[in-house]
Amino acid sequence: MQDHSQSLLANGPDQSAAPSLVELLRAQISSSSELSFLMEAHDGLSAAIAERAGFKGLWASGLSIACSLGYRDANEASWSHLVDVVERIVDSSQLPVLVDGDGGFGNFNNARLLARKLLQRGAAGVALEDSCFPKMNSFVGDRHPLADIDEFSGRLRAVKDAVADDLVLVARIEALIAGHGMDKAILRAHAYADAGADAILIHSRQSTADEILSFVNAWQNRLPIVIVPTKYYRTPVSAYRNARISTVIWANHSMRAAIAAMRQVCGRIIAEESAASVEPNIATLDELFELLRYDELAGAEARYLPHPLTDDNRLHPHSGVHS
Predict the structure, then answer these.
(1) Interior CA angle at 26 toward 21 and 29, to 5°?
(2) Which is an annotated Pfam family here (predicted)?
């Protein structure tokens, strides 16, 4: 009898030649010649929608995941909450997932534990920010305290030693948002590159991309640059391509869209005591079933569940022959 695994290899596609999700994410982030885009996901549904829209990678947003769980983006959700949600995001699409790991939920030991758990759950990369624990969302308040450069570099080295190249490691710099200026941001970027980061995420809360582009010019492409244009969203994408920025993250837009849509629907239904007026503007049940592939389940039931037997083909319970 032919070995089943050999039969699969002989008759199916060569899976060994397919790039892994980590390789796919690394290719997207490392390229300075082609701008890539990561879309926020905060659960399995938002991941499936982003994939269907055409995105090639996902950002597991700490803000949006915390929001979906009813927590604030201030490390109120634990690392175990995060990895559980990441597992659902990974399982719901075929896309590589870069995880917003905040500051690693503590010191070097917490950061490397987080990285190992994310690797186990199928994440392709993790971004760690040089904030203190517990962190506060970058856009809340002013002059957030930053981690010591050497201490945060130790977190990065610990993660790299724990997972090697099995996860893409992005170092996120909060110096500009915290008001520490360009020179300190560049200093931190060099230190984090030396610590083993694969890319630098430079963050800004300004309404234009001026300081981001100034950073990119000073950085001279030592490592790929990732940006999050939440506040400077009016900047044309051509500016990022011209600056050879690697990756743009749309970091919280699905969650914000969901909040706006749910508020509107809930408000109308309670005011009108009817769903009639909202039905034309919300997804149909058929769309929901199609998105989550209920057709696949029906096909699997036909293949794997026993079929009801008729009197003509029922087997005798003892003899094994037709009665």
Answers:
(1) 125
(2) PEP_mutase
